[in-house]
């Protein structure tokens, strides 16, 4: 029984010196594989368009705290969210990524004016994507074949117009493809602990990338500001219309009073004096109404400014110096490593097959 155990242990022992010697004898094969792999990897990765990434961090001013605000803040410090109890807004920060992915937000972004880093292109973001985006040359045959197949089953979509603005509620197939492409290049994350908004934009040109990132920030700030001040702006317009009506009424009565007094100088008839007193009372009433409406309008206007949130830019967008992808050296090194593993498996294929068959039989 001990003899069988020793035999089994000896069979399981792998002599590394013997295996390395076997691999060294096939060094010519490794060199050929490495040369071919290196050449193919370079041919594949070098034409790939480079991409740049710009990120920014934004901290918006939150609404007034409620009685449960302190408890929500404590829970957020441990990574829990109690439904934004500390703010009264229905549009809370966790919904900002959903806003950035809507068709309307993306369509508005497509008409942002951009300029490339070399100043060779100065156009809209939509035109830049359509005409100046570098494409992978290896996928052109695939795209052509797919387009020909789509023509057999679908009607060809009309080309994207450069003069007519897209309708975000009714996109064509080509417009939807552009919107989805831009949507994938924009990422928005919100930290539930601090409510800090992080926006990441990826594009092929560094200056375009920074411009779009800043445009996303501005449009997001404008939307949040418009939402927070919507009720106050409606009140402001309402009181402005009342103040304008009161001013017109005051000016009309003041003109009537002045004309009456000028036309009835040195007249002591009681009927004329009564009419003058009546006009004077109406003038005083209209003046008081106008002053009250003007005060309400100024208060509503001040409330709009009070409700306007302040934004703190924690990390401003800057033009990147180096591209973030594709990682050419890492890709080539990974391909060489995989080819080495594959070659080793090819050399030891017989031993591996015999060992696998033996384990199955046992």
Folded structure, characterized:
By secondary structure, the chain is α+β, with helices and mostly antiparallel strands. Among the domains are: 52-228, no CATH class; 232-307. The chain has 14 helices and six strands. The protein has helices spanning 2-12, 16-25, 27-45, 69-77, 96-100, 103-110, 125-132, 140-153, 173-185, 206-228, 230-263, 270-307, 328-347, 349-361; strands spanning 52-60, 113-115, 122-124, 186-190, 197-203, 311-315. A four-stranded antiparallel β-sheet has the order 4-5-1-6. The chain has a two-stranded antiparallel ribbon with strand order 2-3. A hairpin with a 6-residue loop joins strand 2 (113-115) and strand 3 (122-124). Helix 3 runs antiparallel to helix 13 and helix 11 runs antiparallel to helix 12 (270-307). The longest helix has 38 residues, at 270-307. The protein starts with a helix and ends with a helix. 15% of the residues are buried.
Please give the number of β-strands: 6
Widest sheet: strand ordering: 4-5-1-6
Helix content: 55-70%
Report the β-strand fraction as a percent range. Answer: 5-15%
Largest sheet: 4 strands, antiparallel
Query: Low-confidence stretches at least 5 residues in length (pLDDT < 50)?
Result: 1-5, 64-71, 73-80, 82-87
Tell me the Rg in angstroms.
37 Å
Instruction: Give, in order, the helices and strands.
Output: HHHEHHHEEHHHEEHHHEHH
Distance between the first and last residues' Cα: 18 Å
Number of helices in the DSSP assignment: 14
Mean pLDDT: 82
Shape: elongated
Which structural category do the helix and sheet elements fall into? Answer: alpha+beta
């Amino acid at each position: 029984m001990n003899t069988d155990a020793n035999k089994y242990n000896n069979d399981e022992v792998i002599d590394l010196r013997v295996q390395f010697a076997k691999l060294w004898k096939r060094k010519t094969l490794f060199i050929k594989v490495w040369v071919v792999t290196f050449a193919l990897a370079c041919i594949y990765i070098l034409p790939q368009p480079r991409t740049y990434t710009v990120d920014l961090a934004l901290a918006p001013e939150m609404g007034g705290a409620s009685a449960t605000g302190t408890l929500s803040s404590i829970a957020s410090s441990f990574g829990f969210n109690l439904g934004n109890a500390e703010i009264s807004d229905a549009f809370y920060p966790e919904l900002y990524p959903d806003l950035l992915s809507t068709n309307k937000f993306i369509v508005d972004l497509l008409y942002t004016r951009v300029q490339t880093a070399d100043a060779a292109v100065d156009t809209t973001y939509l035109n830049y994507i359509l005409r100046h985006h570098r494409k992978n040359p290896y996928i052109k045959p695939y795209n052509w074949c797919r387009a020909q197949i789509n023509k057999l089953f679908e009607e060809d979509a009309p080309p994207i117009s450069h003069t007519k603005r897209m309708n975000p509620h009714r996109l064509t197939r080509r417009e939807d493809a552009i919107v989805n492409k831009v949507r994938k290049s924009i990422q928005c994350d919100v930290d539930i602990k601090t409510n800090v908004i992080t926006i990441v934009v990826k594009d092929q040109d560094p200056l375009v990338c920074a411009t779009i990132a800043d445009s996303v920030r501005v449009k997001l700030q404008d939307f949040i500001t418009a939402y927070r001040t919507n009720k106050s702006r409606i009140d402001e317009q309402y009181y402005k219309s009342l103040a304008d009506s009161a001013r017109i009424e005051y000016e009309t009565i003041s003109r009537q009073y002045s004309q009456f007094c000028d036309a009835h100088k040195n007249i002591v008839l009681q009927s004329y004096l009564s009419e003058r007193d009546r006009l004077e009372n109406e003038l005083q009433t209209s003046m008081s109404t106008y002053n009250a409406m003007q005060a309400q309008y100024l208060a509503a206007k001040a409330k709009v400014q009070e409700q306007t949130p302040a934004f703190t830019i924690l990390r401003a967008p800057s033009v990147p110096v180096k591209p973030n992808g594709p990682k050419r050296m890492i890709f080539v090194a990974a391909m060489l490593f995989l080819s080495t593993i594959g070659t080793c498996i090819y050399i030891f294929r017989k031993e591996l097959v015999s060992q696998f068959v033996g384990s199955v039989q046992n």
